[in-house]
Design brief:
7 helices; 179 residues; single chain; Rossmann fold; 41% helix; 6-stranded parallel sheet; two-stranded antiparallel sheet; alpha/beta
Amino acid sequence: MRQPRLAWAITGSGHYIEACLELVLTLKEVDLYISQAGEEVLKMYGIDLKKLSQTHAVYRDKARSAPPVGLFYKNYYHTFIMAPTTSNTIAKCVLGIADSLVTNLYAQAGKCRIPSIVYPCDIAPEMETTAPSGTFMVYPRKIELEATEKIRTFEYTTVVESVDELAEKINFRLNLLQG
């Protein structure tokens, strides 16, 4: 029987996306799920999706019913990661809206009691973020910060605030699974 894998979703956020992908490349047994906006952002950062697909299975948001979510019901994944995650995706998840590949994956992971690790792009009232041209300051609005706080309360969900913390939580999860 096949060992369960990590499912990793990339949304349309550029928030430390290069560092997140560097982390992905250090891991084995990871499948990538890319939203339509995620594809656009990868292009803006000069990240070649074809190159990623040489080392990882890549699923793109091309079907209305998000067929790959069925893999959660087959014990194919042990953990779901959304990193980086847009405020739009966070808001949809908080409201229970599952109308895209990524939001559907989050909903199904929760329904199957599969832990999710989420790295929102809006985590503090003032913060540094990345763009293709470099780093700059952003000031998330109250509504975005409230959604981030709300998703922290969801069962089977761990919210992280940095790529280092993301790596730490992933390693903790992998070590826990290895016994």
